[in-house]
């Protein structure tokens, strides 16, 4: 089992009122799954992804990742954990504007203290695989949206994560670009990467092996 | 990793050119200031350390409290003290004495009677042991035995060259003095006088046993009086100087109890001063042998450099934290892909470090270019060699590194604390750092600027005051000609009448001391019927007839001198006051002085108004003048605009009459102004730094406002669409900053007042600090800030709102 959520909730206080962003979520994710989170805007998809990605915390319930209890972990250990096993892809790509394509992709490796020669080799491989070798010295502002998202995915994959979290990865793309990204995800999934993506689109969700519907922070159907 | 940090840092710096420009500019100014002040301060330290075992060499100094009368406090001692110390105390291994002969004669020196001579000051009469304690590098001859016999001299290389050209000079003779007092001296050596850092700055040495003053010093045995000898002792290694110091009171009592009582100096105390401390720690000790600096002055300069650098750092801190929003995304993303807080802190620190190191590299050539200006301001002789010195470079690198860390650490901590989730949820506004903190820093910058403005105004006012204060004599339109040879003495009357025939010459007089020289001679005097040991110290100047009308000094009572006067004296009002002599009794009063058990009588024949015969730093003390026909100066009062013609007429007349003394002249008003050169330099230095501090602060403000205007672009747009006028928008942007400057003003006022009040205490005659200075400084700072801020604010206010709204 890759991760287990047991009665996990996220409740925040806002203006004296308690708001339940996520409500008693139970979810088991096995390695190799490709899960699509669906639901209307504001239903809690992003919040769930962020919590699974340890960028935000569940306020209640249990979260076990690779048999480690995340809910009782210190911030520092969580950082170590997600640095090692989790890759993120964002709707707004979130590339660093000041860095070239190549440097953006290389960044996660820097924080893992990998030798320069090895970094170069890994980056070269992935550039090759994504067919963006020609773009390696361009800056994000010089790329189209689809190309930027490719770079974002390349960056998420460079450190060989077990789990890829993607929050509306095609939300800013046209349908042709969207299809390309989804096909890439399917391919990655076949290669063994576990993927959880949030999406509005039925057709994108269909690439997944399992669909979970959220409404008002609750899982309403699977 | 580091390379990556620097690469990104560089791209970031290039991308935000305005901010980088402001930061870099401030840091360069700060670093240049630091560098220049650093080399200046280093140049002022390390004096006298090159002498063998300098740490064991001490100068004996004298402090004499005289009951309720002003104490005297001098770097010199009575003649027999140093030899007695050597014979009394085994830990004193060597002693030497130096007499600065400039105090007694004008030091005319010639290669032979046939050639013109020069007035060469800084002639040291010295014991033969002088070179055992103070090693000078001999270019010719040898220090061993160089001053063993009477009439021997050791010249500086500069003087030897001036007198003899490039010839070898050892064994040759020079003639020192003129007329009956002329002495023939044999040259026994030449020393290198290039750039040695020492409080001693000899032009030439003459053996102490030479007849005249030297002989007097060698044989004089009174431990109380004639405190004009510089006495040095060298202690054996490991000697306890403190212990020796404690034995000095009984030492002086043992040798001179009776003499001290006779001279009215029962409180005379001796102090040991490390020679390595003389250059910087001699405040309050009069009669230094050369110019000394003051550690306070160096601290003041260091503080200025520190503040400038701090102001520049604040710009960096403020501008970096203010634009945290723009960087938040990068930070969030980096954290998501695995960056820890530590590595982000390192990244931001490398940005500030990069900037401060770039500033350092640029500051070196700038500092080198500025050195001539600096030398003019400080009367220094700094060169690029002072910069390319490992000590300076290491210090500079440390300063720059520290600056980078200081400027970078706060923004680094703030920026690295940004949580990725805040950024990824985009629309959230990052509250970067504490707005209060940023405001406090702006206030701090303006506190410094306003304090500096106040200081500059007050220092300049005081300087102007000293320049314009009525000194009690008229310094304008007067030349002073160097006299001081027997020739001038005997031909004075002829010169005077010849001078008076020159068109434009109004009157001619002579004197021992010129108005720009501090009168050092003094007599201990008392009134008839009073205790001869209860002495009042009265300064003494010898002058000619017509001195007072030439100087325009008011003769309040009595008469000017006439040719038959001998012991008759004219006193200033301070003397009357000091002796409690009623004004109407002045002309019937006689002052007494006892010397070697003989009582001398000085009848008062005139009273002059108090005039400033020392600088305005000192109070006017009792002074008497007597008729003197061995002048050091001839004063010529003139009324003409053609100085050139006047001087050339004076010169040809002088040459017709005098063949021993060269013709040298100065303008009295210039020389008087020079007395305040230090204050003038201080005011210039302060002005420069004030300007820089304000410039940097305003640039910072400019950057901050640009940032706020950018941030509030949308708000401004909406307000304008809703009908807000340009004025209200400008007000919106400037209000906060105006409040900050006002707070700074409130804080700066008492600080600046205290500092300036303290500084003015140095002057007996000083300006009052006026409220207007503060109001002026406050309004000035406010105006400068307003102009800076409104420039950006107006730009933002008149922008078309549609543009800013559409970009959202
Ligand atoms: N920090 C927060 N404070 C208050 N409400 C929040 C906060 N974060 C998210 N929300 C709310 O939680 C709900 C779920 O948001 P989100 O997870 O972004 O939904 P989705 O991604 O499905 O559109 C939304 O109604 C959002 O407004
Ligand atoms: Mg969402």
Structure explained in plain terms:
The complex is a heterodimer of chains A (222) and B (808). With 222 residues, chain A is α/β, with parallel strands linked by helices. Chain A has a single domain (29-57, 83-221), classed as P-loop containing nucleotide triphosphate hydrolases (Rossmann fold, 3-Layer(aba) Sandwich). Chain A has helices spanning 45-52, 75-85, 101-110, 116-129, 145-157, 175-190, 202-205; strands at residues 3-14, 17-29, 34-38, 60-65, 68-69, 86-90, 163-167, 194-198, 210-215, 218-221. In chain A, a hairpin with a 2-residue loop joins strand 9 and strand 10. In chain A, helix 3 (101-110) packs across helix 4 and helix 3 runs parallel beside helix 5. The two termini of chain A are 18 Å apart. Chain B has 808 residues and is an alpha+beta fold. Chain B is built from 25 helices and 24 strands. In chain B, strands 1, 2, 3, 4, 5, 6, 7, 8, 9, 10, 11, 12 and 13 form a 13-stranded mixed beta sheet that branches. In chain B, strands 16, 17, 18, 19, 20, 21 and 22 form a seven-stranded mixed beta sheet that branches. A four-stranded antiparallel beta sheet of chain B has the order 15-23-14-24. In chain B, strand 1 and strand 2 form a beta hairpin. In chain B, helix 10 (324-336) packs across helix 13 and helix 11 crosses helix 13 (390-416). The mean pLDDT of chain B is 87. Chains A and B meet through helix 2 and helix 3 of A and helix 1, helix 10 and helix 14 of B. The structure holds adenosine-5'-diphosphate and magnesium ion. Chain A: This is ABC transporter ATP-binding protein. Chain A: Residues 3-222 form the ABC transporter domain.
């Amino acid at each position: 089992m890759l991760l287990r959520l047991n009665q996990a909730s996220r409740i925040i206080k806002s203006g004296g009122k308690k708001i339940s962003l996520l409500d008693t979520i139970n979810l088991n994710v096995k390695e190799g799954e490709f899960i699509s989170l669906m639901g209307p805007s504001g239903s809690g998809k992003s919040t769930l992804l962020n919590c699974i990605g340890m960028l935000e915390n569940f306020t209640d319930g249990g979260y076990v990742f690779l048999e480690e209890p995340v809910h009782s972990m210190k911030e520092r250990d969580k950082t170590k954990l997600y640095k090692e096993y989790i890759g993120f892809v964002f709707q707004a790509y979130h590339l660093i504007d000041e860095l070239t394509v190549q440097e953006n992709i290389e960044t996660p490796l820097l924080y893992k203290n990998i030798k320069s020669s090895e970094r170069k080799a890994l980056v070269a491989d992935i550039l090759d695989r994504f067919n963006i070798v020609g773009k390696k010295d361009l800056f994000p502002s010089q790329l189209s949206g689809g190309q930027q998202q490719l770079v974002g995915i390349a960056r998420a994959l460079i450190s060989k994560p077990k789990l890829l979290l993607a929050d509306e990865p095609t939300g800013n793309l046209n349908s042709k670009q969207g299809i390309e990204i989804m096909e890439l995800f399917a391919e990655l999934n076949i290669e063994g990467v576990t993927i959880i993506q949030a999406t509005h689109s039925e057709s994108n969700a269909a690439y997944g092996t399992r669909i979970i519907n959220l409404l008002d922070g609750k899982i309403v159907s699977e | 990793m580091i390379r990556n940090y620097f690469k990104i840092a560089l791209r970031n710096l290039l991308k935000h050119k305005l901010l980088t420009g402001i930061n870099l500019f401030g840091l360069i100014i700060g670093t240049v200031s630091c560098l220049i002040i650093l080399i200046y301060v280093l140049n002022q330290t390390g004096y006298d350390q090159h002498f063998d075992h300098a740490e064991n060499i001490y100068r004996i100094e004298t402090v004499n409290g005289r009951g309720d009368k002003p104490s005297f406090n001098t770097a010199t001692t009575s003649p027999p003290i140093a030899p007695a110390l050597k014979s009394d105390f085994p830990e004193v291994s060597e002693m030497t004495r130096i007499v600065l002969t400039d105090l007694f004669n004008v030091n005319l020196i010639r290669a032979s009677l046939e050639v013109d001579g020069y007035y060469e000051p800084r002639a040291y009469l010295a014991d033969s042991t002088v070179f055992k304690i103070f090693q000078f590098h001999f270019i010719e001859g040898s220090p061993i035995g160089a001053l063993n016999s009477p009439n021997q001299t050791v010249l500086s290389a500069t003087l030897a060259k001036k007198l003899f050209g490039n010839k070898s000079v050892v064994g040759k003779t020079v003639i020192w003095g003129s007329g009956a007092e002329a002495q023939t001296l044999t040259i026994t050596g030449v020393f290198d006088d290039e750039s040695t850092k020492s409080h001693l700055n000899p032009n030439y040495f003459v053996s102490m046993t030479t007849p005249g003053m030297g002989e007097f010093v060698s044989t004089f045995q009174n431990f109380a009086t004639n405190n004009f000898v510089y006495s040095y002792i060298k202690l054996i290694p490991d000697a306890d100087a403190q212990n020796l110091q404690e034995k000095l009171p009984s030492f002086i009592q043992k040798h001179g109890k009776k003499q001290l009582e006779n001279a009215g100096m029962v409180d005379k105390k001796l102090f040991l001063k490390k020679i390595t401390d003389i250059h910087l720690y001699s405040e309050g000790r009069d009669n230094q042998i050369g110019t000394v600096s003051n550690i306070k002055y160096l601290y003041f300069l260091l503080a200025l450099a520190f503040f400038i650098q701090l102001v520049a750092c604040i710009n960096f801190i403020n501008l970096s934290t203010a634009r945290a929003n723009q960087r938040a995304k990068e930070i969030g993303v980096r954290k998501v892909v695995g960056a820890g807080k530590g590595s982000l802190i390192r990244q931001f620190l490398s940005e500030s470090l990069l900037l401060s190191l770039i500033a350092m590299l640029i500051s070196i050539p700038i500092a080198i270019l500025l050195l001539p200006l600096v030398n003019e301001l400080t009367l220094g002789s700094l060169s690029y060699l002072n910069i390319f010195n490992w000590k300076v470079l290491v210090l500079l690198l440390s300063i720059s590194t520290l600056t980078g860390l200081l400027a970078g650490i706060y923004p680094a901590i703030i920026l690295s604390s940004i949580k990725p989730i805040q950024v990824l949820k985009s629309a959230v506004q990052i509250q970067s750092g504490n707005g209060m903190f940023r405001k406090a820093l702006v206030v701090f910058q303006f506190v410094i600027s306003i304090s500096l403005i106040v200081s500059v105004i007050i220092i300049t006012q005081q300087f102007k005051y000293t320049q314009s204060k009525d000194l009690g004599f008229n310094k304008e339109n007067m030349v002073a000609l160097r006299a001081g040879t027997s020739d001038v003495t005997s031909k004075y009357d002829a010169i005077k009448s010849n001078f008076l025939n020159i068109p434009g010459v109004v009157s001619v007089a002579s004197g021992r001391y010129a108005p720009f020289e501090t009168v050092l001679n003094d007599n201990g005097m008392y009134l008839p019927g009073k205790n001869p040991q209860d002495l009042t110290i009265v300064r003494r100047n010898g002058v000619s007839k017509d001195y007072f009308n030439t100087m325009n000094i008011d003769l309040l009572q009595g008469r000017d001198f006439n040719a038959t006067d001998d012991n008759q004296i004219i006193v200033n009002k301070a003397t009357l006051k000091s002796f409690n002599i009623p004004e109407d009794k002045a002309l019937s009063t006689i002052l007494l002085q006892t010397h070697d058990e003989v009582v001398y009588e000085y009848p008062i024949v005139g009273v002059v108004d108090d005039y400033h015969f020392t600088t305005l730093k000192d109070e006017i003390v009792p002074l008497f003048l007597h008729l003197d026909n061995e002048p050091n100066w001839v004063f010529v009062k003139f009324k003409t605009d053609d100085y050139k013609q006047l001087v050339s007429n004076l010169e040809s007349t002088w040459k017709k009459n005098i063949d021993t003394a060269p013709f040298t002249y100065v303008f009295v008003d210039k020389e008087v102004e020079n007395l305040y050169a230090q204050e003038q330099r201080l005011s210039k230095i302060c002005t420069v730094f004030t300007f820089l501090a304000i410039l940097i602060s305003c640039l910072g403000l400019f950057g901050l406002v640009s940032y706020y205007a950018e941030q509030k672009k949308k708000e401004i747009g909406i307000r304008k669409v809703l009908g807000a006028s340009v004025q209200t928008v400008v007000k919106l942007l400037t209000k906060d900053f105006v409040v900050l400057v006002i707070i700074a003003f409130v804080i700066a006022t008492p600080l600046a007042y205290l500092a300036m009040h303290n500084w003015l205490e140095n002057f007996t005659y000083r300006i009052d600090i006026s409220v207007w200075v503060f109001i002026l400084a406050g309004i000035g700072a406010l105006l400068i800030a307003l102009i800076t801020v409104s420039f950006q604010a107006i730009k933002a206010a008149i922008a078309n709102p549609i543009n800013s709204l559409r970009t959202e």
